[in-house]
Design goal:
single chain; alpha+beta; three-stranded antiparallel β-sheet
Amino acid sequence: MRGSGRCCGQGIIRRECHSGRWLTTTETTDHPVLVAAVDQLSEYFAGDRQTFDLLLDPIGTDFQQSAWMALRAIPYGTTVSYGEQAAAMGDKRKARAVGAANGRNPISIIVPCHRVVGANGSLTGFAGGLESKQWLLDHESKTAQPSEIETFSTQ
């Protein structure tokens, strides 16, 4: 059995493959965290939200947790390189390890790994694909107010 799920409105749509046939089921939920996530993501995509204030508890190593916290410190509408993220975490030599940790980020968009680019500004790695990463960066650059763009720092 293979499956996938996505959040839609106030429920979760699941597609599962049973013996070669895809079945679609919908689970309705009013779990407060999912309701808040749907609301906040809707506001983000409408251009009305730049930060998320959800209770998050992603599972990862201590280093991954540190990398994900650093991602949350990258201001809306800006990008940093993996090396800059590593330096902000205390060791600029760990850029590749930061990239690997970012690649394990289970909460894309809310934990904005799309804001990290290659040292030369090129788009690199994103679980949703580089086209999606470019769209997210374009969306943020169009909706960010110049006075709201800050400098990146995890301090």
